[in-house]
Q: What sequence folds into this?
């Protein structure tokens, strides 16, 4: 594959979750996970928190450290030692030893400890790769996948359904059994909390099994294929138009050139049809373009109720005959593909209806939303208190674990009546969970348009303003308008963009001290960082991890806070983690969503 600058174009690949209103992450020096005994220090480098690069660096560093501990560390790769490395462009064979949480294989050449980062490969594979770039400071070499020399027992290439697999950067796992993918994703969550929460292991409960997606292909309701401008056009000066159909598709691994893609089997049928139609349009109209462009493909559903199970409603007006028809006993859904960013897209989750500006954020896998919102519904309130123990006949000594929620679920507590949905978008949680909150629900989002649609969605789902209201503002503003909510009776749902929560927001959250927090995240690494801060009850000024807050220090801070003293008792409440579970919104990719449930630790439990 090509040489040139490595780009991770999150907005352009089919797998990448996209959020409108998503700001660039703040850049600050990489701190990374803290490990005892790791002598190989990288140079201070600026990377985005929770980014692909930071996560990869953490995994490379961990592998280098484990090699050193195991005594099989021959080279000195982490400090960019002078051991000769193969020339960029040369082809070598490597064995994949583990998977990074980025979905890339970490591999070694026989007789060497140098790490190669290899896409589209799984542990146990021997693969031929083309050396792409040496990152000596970081202790690894990026390589392009060429071919499988000896397959891993985990690999079965007959599972691969996409002709672009191992070229397009959208999917990484099509060669794997789905159960194996779920196991890998569970491990990604485990590693995220180990590497980025800065919490001692005893404060993190065992991560639960990842819940799979009902659809493992044909699930993606949004794609954004793109094409480049004509070659040779400069910023200034006359622009010539395309002379032939440009490649139209997605970004391959390790190159900026667009990969021409005719089909994407992880997308829904309606979106796949949209891709075919947009290709046909571009084939006619490419001569009008002097610049590149990104095209939105977003599924839209028109639901027509049926009078009886045998009823066959006609195609409604305005719906093309090519619409995909999905029928149940109760209704027919006509599914089409929208390309106008400002048009309204509609989708259903069970019997809830959601409308959105087609170009704005909404979850991209509709098939998992019913089980996902049910899971939130089943866990958004504290579990019932455990039954009283039977009268003891003998005296025994019991030990309570720090992750138990029993301290927060005694029967003397007030019932939870209020829901705050921070980063609410168009109201997914505010609306689907509203029935559980007699005091009312409030959602907040920075995107005005999403909030306008959230209000409309509440009305469409039969909710009055006193049941469900929305605020268009930066998340920290929330705390000005929830004065009437008793924190003891309030649960806060958080679902921030990939960068996680801002420090200011977390500090105010700790000061407000809601009884329970449900943290939903599309980036488990920033989630682990933020959850670590909630557990310590301390947020540093830079908005990230408390310096020195890892390992025993975190336990000490947590203990000191519990005793009502200690320098990290800064912001108010402190939390304990009840559960952590991954959800597979993006099968075939290395991406995992995560739900962490936290309970406030009360100084005196009552
Ligand atoms: C991952 S989306 C979640 C949306 C919604 N919970 C859902 O599932 O549809 C993150 C949301 O955070 C919003 N957002 C980003 N920065 C924000 C901020 N500083 N304050 C409030 N909302 C913000 C975005 O507009 C986006 O709707």
A:
């Amino acid at each position: 594959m090509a040489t040139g600058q490595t780009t991770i174009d999150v907005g352009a690949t089919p797998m990448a979750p996209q959020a409108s209103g998503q700001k660039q992450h703040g850049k600050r020096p990489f701190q990374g996970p803290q490990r005892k005994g790791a002598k190989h220090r990288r140079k201070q480098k600026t990377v985005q928190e929770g980014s692909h690069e930071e996560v990869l660096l953490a995994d490379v560093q961990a592998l280098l450290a484990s090699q050193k501990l195991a005594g099989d560390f021959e080279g000195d790769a982490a400090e960019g030692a002078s051991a000769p490395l193969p020339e960029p462009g040369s082809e070598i064979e490597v064995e994949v030893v583990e998977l990074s949480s980025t979905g890339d294989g970490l591999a070694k050449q026989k007789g060497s400890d140098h790490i190669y980062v290899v896409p589209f490969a799984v542990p146990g594979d021997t693969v031929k790769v083309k050396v792409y770039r040496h990152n000596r400071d970081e202790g690894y070499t990026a390589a392009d996948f060429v071919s499988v020399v000896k397959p891993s027992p985990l690999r079965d290439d007959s599972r691969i359904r996409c002709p672009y697999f191992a070229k397009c950067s959208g999917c990484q796992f099509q060669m794997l059994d789905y159960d194996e993918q779920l196991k890998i994703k569970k491990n990604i969550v485990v590693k995220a909390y180990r590497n980025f929460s800065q919490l001692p292991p005893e404060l993190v409960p065992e991560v639960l099994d990842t819940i799979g997606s009902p659809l493992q292909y044909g699930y993606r309701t949004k794609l954004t294929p793109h094409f480049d401008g004509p070659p040779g056009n400069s910023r200034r000066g006359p622009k010539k138009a395309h002379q032939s159909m440009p490649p139209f598709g997605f970004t391959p691994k390790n190159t900026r050139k667009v990969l021409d893609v005719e089909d994407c089997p992880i997308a829904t049928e309606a979106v796949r049809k949209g891709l075919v139609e947009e290709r046909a349009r571009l084939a006619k109209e490419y001569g009008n373009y002097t610049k590149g462009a990104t095209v939105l493909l977003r599924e839209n559903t028109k639901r027509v109720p049926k009078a009886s199970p045998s009823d066959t409603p006609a195609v409604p007006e305005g719906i093309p005959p090519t619409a995909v028809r999905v029928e149940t006993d109760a209704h027919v859904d006509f599914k089409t593909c929208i390309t106008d960013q400002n048009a309204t897209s509609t989708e259903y989750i069970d019997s809830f209806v959601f409308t959105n500006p087609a170009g704005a954020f909404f979850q991209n896998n509709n098939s998992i939303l019913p089980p996902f919102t049910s899971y939130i519904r089943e866990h958004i309130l504290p579990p019932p208190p455990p039954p009283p123990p039977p009268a003891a006949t003998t005296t025994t000594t019991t030990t309570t674990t720090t992750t138990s929620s029993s301290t927060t679920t005694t029967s003397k507590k007030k019932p939870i009546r209020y829901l705050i949905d921070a980063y609410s978008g168009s109201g997914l949680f505010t609306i689907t969970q509203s029935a559980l909150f007699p005091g009312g629900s409030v959602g907040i989002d920075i995107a005005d348009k999403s909030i306008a649609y959230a209000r409309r969605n509440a009305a469409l789902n039969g909710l009055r303003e006193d049941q469900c209201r929305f605020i268009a503002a930066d998340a920290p503003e929330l705390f000005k308008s929830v004065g009437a909510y008793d924190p003891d009776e309030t649960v806060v749902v958080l679902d921030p963009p990939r960068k996680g929560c801002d420090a200011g927001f977390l500090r105010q959250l700790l000061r407000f001290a809601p009884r329970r927090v449900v943290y939903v995240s599309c980036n488990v690494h920033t989630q682990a960082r933020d959850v670590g801060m909630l557990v310590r009850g301390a947020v540093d000024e830079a908005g990230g991890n408390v310096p020195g807050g890892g390992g025993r220090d975190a336990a000490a801070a947590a203990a000191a806070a519990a005793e009502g003293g200690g320098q990290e008792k800064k912001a108010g409440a402190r939390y304990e983690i009840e559960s952590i579970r991954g959800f597979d919104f993006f099968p075939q990719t290395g991406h995992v969503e995560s739900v962490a449930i936290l309970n406030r630790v009360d100084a005196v439990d009552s």
